[in-house]
What we know:
The protein is built from 22 helices and 24 strands. The protein is an alpha/beta fold. Strands 9-14-13-12-10-11 form a six-stranded mixed β-sheet, with helices on both faces. The chain has a five-stranded mixed β-sheet with strand order 16-24-23-18-19, with no helix packed on it. Strand 12, helix 17 and strand 13 (about 515-520) form a beta-alpha-beta unit. Helix 5 packs parallel to helix 6 (about 165-180) and helix 14 crosses helix 19. The N and C termini lie far apart (about 90 Å).
Amino acid sequence: MRIVITKVLLIIMGIVFFAQANAQNSGNSGAYPFRNPALPVDERVQDLINRLTLEEKAMQMVHNSPAVERLGIPEYNWWNEALHGIGRSGVATVFPQAIGMGATFDEELIKEVASAISDEARATHNTAVENGYRRQYSGLTFWTPNINIFRDPRWGRGQETYGEDPYLTSILGTAFVNGLQGDNPKYLKTAAAAKHFAVHSGPEKLRHEFNAEASQKDLWETYLPAFKALVDADVETIMCAYNSTNGEPCCANKYLLQDVLRDKWNFDGHIVSDCWALVDFYEGHNVVETTEEAAALAIKSGVNLNCGSVYPHLPAAVEQGLVTEEEIDEQLATLLKTKFKLGLFDPAEDNPYSKLSVEDLNTEEHRQLARKTAQKSIVMLKNNGALPLKNNLSKYFVTGPNATSVEVLLGNYHGINPDLVTILEGLAGAIEPQSQMQYRQGTLFDRPNANPQDWASPNAGNSDATIAVLGISGVLEGEEGESIASETFGDRLDYNIPQNQIDYLQKLSDAAGDNPVIAVITGGSPMNLEKVHELADAVLLVWYPGEEGGNAVADVIFGKVSPSGRLPITFPKSLDDLPPYEDYSMNGRTYKYMDEAPMYPFGYGLSYTSFDYSGINLSKNKVKKGNSLQASVKVTNTGEKGAEEVVQLYVSDVETSVDAPKYQLFGVKRVKLEPGASEEISFEITPEMMELVNLEGERVLEKGDFKVYLGGSTPHQRNVELGMTEVEEATFTLN
């Protein structure tokens, strides 16, 4: 009997051994420990690394990592974009460009937008994989948001940012990351990336060789705070920039990548190079001579993922003794953790985000969210009483090169949608049936008309209102290779909008007489609007407003909603008022340090109603170091229309041992008030808001007086000149 049992056991063991061997040989990797969700992530990662050859390891660290069929690992492309909606992929909701989201000053709204984007991202990924597609832009790792500081209006990619202020960039960037990555305790919904680390904002043409020089004070006061905020928010990825900072390429910058990011901030996610930035090591910055040396330098610098073509040369770098396989394993381990956090090696039924499908793509709910975001992003720069218009006037004349343009809805890094509502379409959909609306383009986008006959502008004289849609688009500003009409690689070294547009607006103004002319301006950066402000009765800055842009513009023009956007960046009167573009010192830049009076200040934006601020109160007049205080103010809608107000808190250190900002934004709250209604708005002023950044980049507290400003804008006198209510002011002393 024992002999029979023994034989049976031997047969069973043989069958099991054969099945396991057959499973491994056939690519069925279900039995591998790295496939076991019950094991710790570090153990799973190490098991997977131990099964890879050196060549396979190298290719897993490239953005278009191929399949490892013998282990059942499919190909994965790490490169994806979601700046203001899923970019460069399938049909998705197109939200307003990032700079427009910055103009909302609304972190709750931006988190809602990012959550909708990540729903669509998972749905797109799940649908693509179900159909056997694993192309670029179908993965779950998104290289967004761009939290660089828009320090100079000449930078063509400034439209991708949330503006010039580190605090505003920090709160909106954090909200966006939280929305993208989700709140599941085990799985990331998607992986977000903070880019471009660090001190990166042009010139676009020189980015592959440029060295940005920044003092320790400017680094820690302006360029690094938003990155620190996103690291604290557990952003999964950091993208290192093309340029050098203070003499070292950003993707091989020991101070930035090791001393600050890893050691000081304890960042534990992965670092990705900007695309082909490692090639710049030997073709732009000339810090190495060969591809193998570039690969080794990047590994030793802590770059986990190469977007580009350098890391396939890692095996040769090992062979040449430039780097060890153990060093490669260390960087690969950090990278692979992201895949495990996304659940890419787990059964789909374990991951709640696997349930998102085509039903969650391009939904009506997301469309309405895009419209709401566009509404809140629109900044009214001028209004002499022309707006809002009634929607039942006898005749409207819509004109200008951007009225029917899809391009001005999109900005850059955009998605696509089958229902992009142009500004003309939005306006036409909002008027009553008895009203007439006529349209003529009137002038070309960026050059004079070849035909001297003008059949367009006379319409302004026989119309109750003329709406001229002017400005710029992504063909004039953006990334180096995308702005096909730009002779300066996407940067805007000419601060003006095309002169032919100004000439045409002059004709419209002359023809209109007493009839109002409303200028609707598109674009993603500051521009010279002095003549537009002079000629038009009302001016709306609508940025690149997304798929619902036309409807949102109509909602504001016809008074369905009151404009409530605020400028997230200063509009200087002239580029002559700024330091040279290549100068990264903050002296003379942004609302904090600019001495010249701007055309439009940071934080500026008009409403259809008026708000009064009164009764500012501080909980303490004297504060000991390390203690906080409360600041409050009463806000009253003194106009005749319900609207939202953007209440802003600024703090100023009156006497400092080194140059300090005139004042700094440290709080934002949106409040909706009906006519006659009031609400008390409070902010906590923390010790961090009282800190000064010294020349060594250290944050210190210095005794003395501080001013607190509460209002709907910065305390700049120019805001009052333009029609905004003066802010309330109070003083406290730090002992």
